[in-house]
Specification:
Two copies of one chain form a homodimer. The first copy, chain A, has helices at 7-15, 34-46, 64-69, 74-84, 117-120, 124-139, 151-163, 201-208, 212-221, and strands at residues 2-4, 23-28, 49-54, 88-90, 105-109, 143-147, 169-173, 225-233, 239-247, 250-257. With 258 residues, chain A is of the alpha/beta class. Chain A has two domains: 2-173, HUPs (Rossmann fold, 3-Layer(aba) Sandwich), CATH 3.40.50.620; 186-257, Pantoate-beta-alanine ligase, C-terminal domain (Pantoate--beta-alanine Ligase, Chain: A,domain 2). In chain A, the strands form two sheets. A six-stranded parallel beta sheet of chain A has the order 1-4-3-2-6-7, sandwiched between helices. A three-stranded antiparallel beta sheet of chain A has the order 8-9-10, covered by helices on one side. The longest helix of chain A has 16 residues, at 124-139. Chain A is globular, with a radius of gyration of 18 Å. The interface between A and B is medium-sized, with 29 and 28 residues.
């Protein structure tokens, strides 16, 4: 497995690929779990080569403490990637590798990016779109894999790919859940022991109640502080139930198709 | 000479290029003049293939009337391109070809884009950066040619190319002037006959006066309405004098290195 810390190191490797090669790409912020493993496995089954990126993107954090406390497990991540058979890892050590001149030119969206998580995390999706555009230009994948747990993120990246004629196939991958019902997330590592038993109630309430207000009441009764829990009709015709809720100082998100 | 009206039509042609081919790109809004011819000739001398785009980008016009009155001379443009030996022209007829879902996801910049022309044309440079990013993704050039008459635009595109790791060489091409001293521009066609004789005074004042205030006074005395005329130190260490001024309802811009 190749590992690259800079754009300059990665590029010649990418240019060595044949023109028709299928290059799968799984962008992550590290702290890899079985949700990421699922993305990686799907990429490997559908492509000639799979590239994983590990970069905790500072511009998508609206709270400094969340950025500083974001779990970092690079040694374990690289071991997992190698074991899964990833071909190359792009893992810049410094933020300046992707922001050499700072955060000057941004990619923004004014509608969907202001709703749901966007309403509670100002600037979050600008940071996401900006770094994903950079990563696409660097990695140059033919296929890119995004987890459905961050469904709003997937929809926004899809808008960007369409609007900018980015020549790749975007592949959404269904969320991976613990047997308890808790959606896998890197932030789960920060859930306090006394909160563990409550955490799966978010998902359970989302699927068990028909009325969204009942689901919200159940989640609040369980001790969550809810940012939002709402049903949303999407452009593609489907309806999804989206939620974000705090358990102590850990923010959990989830969504289900209705 | 190939001409393409849609992304779908252009792409297979581009994919037929060899991996190492040098693809020069000259993006324009049509109404071609000798300034464009200079860009095209330079691209042709430095590349295997030259692609010209002709697209009057609606999102970079802050005034509807300026957009509607922008000169359109497609038949003559194509004849000139063919005569110069351009290999391919990408000329979408409809705005929807580049904005199929509207103007949703934007590229923005908050510092340089708010100064000079940006201070007088709100949203202008967002529209420019957005369409140039799209065109780069579609055309996939190895070299892209921008006229120095729009020097602020060149600097902003340079920021975008650097920040987004766009894998091409950006080439600024010096402004082409009439013997009178008037910088060539597609908008010159709209200068009223009675204003023609005054038009070259903008450039002459910019180069003849040491003090920028004296230059501005001379331009105003000549009958221009000045948007700005100022000296600016640039990141690269050089100082340039930038100006935008109205002659009737035609806005002229120019800049000179000091």
């Amino acid at each position: 497995m190749k590992t690259f810390e800079t754009v300059e190191a990665y590029r010649p490797w990418r240019k060595g690929m044949l023109a028709g090669a299928r290059i799968g790409f799984v962008p992550t912020m590290g702290a890899l779990h079985q949700g990421h493993a699922k993305l990686i496995r799907q990429s490997m089954s559908e492509n000639d080569v799979t590239v994983l990126s590990i970069f905790v993107n500072p511009t998508q954090f609206n709270q400094k403490s969340d950025f500083e406390n974001y779990p970092s497990t690079l040694v374990e991540d690289l071991a997992m990637a190698e074991k899964l058979g990833v071909d190359a890892v792009f893992a810049p050590k410094l933020a300046s590798a992707l922001y050499p001149k700072g955060y000057r030119v941004k990619v923004t969206e004014d509608i969907l990016s202001k709703e749901l998580c966007g309403a509670h995390r100002p600037g979050h999706f600008d940071g996401v779109l900006t770094v994903v555009m950079k990563l696409f230009n660097i990695v140059r994948p033919t296929h890119a894999y995004f987890g459905e747990k961050d469904y709003q993120q997937y929809l926004l990246v899809k808008e960007m790919v369409e609007d900018y004629f980015i020549d790749l196939k975007l592949v959404p991958v269904p969320t991976e859940y613990e047997s308890s019902g808790l959606a896998l997330s890197s932030r789960n590592a920060r859930i306090l022991p006394e909160h563990k038993i409550m955490a799966p109630l978010l998902h359970r309430a989302m699927v068990e109640f028909d009325r969204v207000d009942d689901a919200r009441a159940a989640v609040e009764d369980a001790g969550f502080v809810v940012d939002y829990l709402e049903d949303k009709h999407l452009e593609n015709g489907e309806t999804r139930r989206f939620a974000a809720a705090w358990l102590g100082d850990v923010r959990l998100i989830d969504n289900v198709k209705l």
